[in-house]
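Researcher: I need the complex structure. Ligand is adenosine-5'-diphosphate. Inputs:
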Amino acid sequence: MLTPTGSGRKKMLQGVIPGRMMQRPLLVSSLIEYGKDFHPNSEIVSRRVEGDLHRYTYAAAYRRVCQLAHGLVALGVTPGTRVATLAWNNHRHFELYYAIQGIGAVCHTVNPRLPVDQFKYVLNHADDRVLFTDLTFVPLLEARRADLPPGMKIVVMTDRAHMPESGLPDLFCFEELLVSQAEHYDWPEFDENTACALCYTSGTTGNPKGALYSHRSMVLHSLFARNADLPCFTPRAKFLPVVPLFHVNAWGLPYLAPLSGAGMVMPGPGLDGPSLFKLMDDEAVSSAWGVPTVWLGLLAEMGQHGRKPKALAHVLVGGSAVPPSMLRTFQETYGISVVHGWGMTEMSPVGSLGILEPEMEALPQEEQLRLKAYQGRRMFGVDLKIVDEDGARLPHDGEAIGELAVRGPCVVDGYFNDEPASAAAIDDEGWFRTGDVASISPDGFLMIVDRTKDLVKSGGEWISSIDLENAAMAHPEIAECAVIAAVHPKWDERPLLIVVPAAGADLAKEAVIDFLTARVAKWWLPDDVVFVDELPHGATGKVSKLTLRAQFKDYVLPTA
Ligand code: ADP
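Model: Output:
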């Protein structure tokens, strides 16, 4: 009989007999070993902060990972030590992932865009003993010297010639750590449930919370994602992670690359449209991954050139909802296939992917675009449920809307050293509560309505800020927009639309409302439209509704 025990760790089935298979641990070191053995000639190309392009093969990367592992030990890093990284997407950051995790230490990727108080909180909460930093962030560390954990060593990710003049104590040089170290490392074996990496959510409410990944969860996440029918996981592909290595493992790409043999092109700090376009074009990138905001810049650059980067065939967009207008431009104007993904820091992060079955690809183009605008179908290894306010399950009928909860071997069962947050995150059945509101169609498409805290609650009914934003983004003179709830005396909350007009646009509020009238229910229409030069973006590049809500907290609607 099955005993229901929450996350399922202690399930006992009477009468079962044990299998006779080896208990070999799933360890991250096996991914890079596999890559160097089977795809030794696949390349990693990086834009270095020093300015030039660096390129080498997985075989050469492996040798440096081994040297770096020896260097870490020499620096005093032991199993369990938290080692922080403050770096762009580049080859040294990639090497750190494997060297730190390979020796049983924990790679804590720190988001350099964190607000000062959160930056201080995560370094001290993690108790980082060593921090590796790109040259770019040395001034930031100097300014925040008093916030760093006492005694923490700092390694600058450069060679001796580029080492900065700095008053920071205990400053080491990355390349010197590797000099004369052996190019082979006997990777230790340990329990696969050992922690390997740590990433804090950007803390839209309260302190950031640490998702502490294990070797097992990381290897499984790589295998599960590789299992998805995506064109970028072959030695014939070259992908570019715009999604940063400093947030949620760059959606798993540094692990998927050596596993699949795909080449990797790392953009370093050059994330603007022109830099991305040139790098993709020069290096014949076939696939790129990132949040919708970064694609706004790339699409503008593609518009200037009147073409796409020559080999770009596939784009994975996630982290926030993809406006259907963006989907259409990629697909219809440039012939680039878009996969819309949904996930969370707490899920390693991939939860669902918008990959169509062959019979769906035979549907009319409009119908395919409609399906692709949803958040996709669950990845293998991820279970989804939606529940009502009492926690009762709702049907997957495409109609019922409820809070989304998830379960799986790559989903956190709590947070690092944070019991109150852990208890609040897990429901009575052991599922992780996402804080998203969604429905699920009978054929498994996830439709995210909104984050619970972003819904506009008007007279007891919900208005989806995502749906309203998507409708507004279809306007050719709107570059970017966001919807937040504004206080209303009669309806509690009403939508306020905040718009960044496209360059040279001459937009009036009435024109925007007219445009929306044809596209959304009348009672959804924003009570006001405000024009701004730019929207605030959070640490992960998404529009920060928290900041917008603070900016407009005293805003009085004309209808109030
Ligand atoms: P944070 O940005 O707070 O650090 P994450 O990067 O983990 O956190 O973001 C996870 C959240 O982002 C999800 O819970 C969901 O609200 C939102 N999200 C991610 N992908 C999508 C998507 N494709 N569509 C809509 N919302 C998304």
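Model: Summary of the prediction. Residues 58-74 form the longest helix (17 residues).
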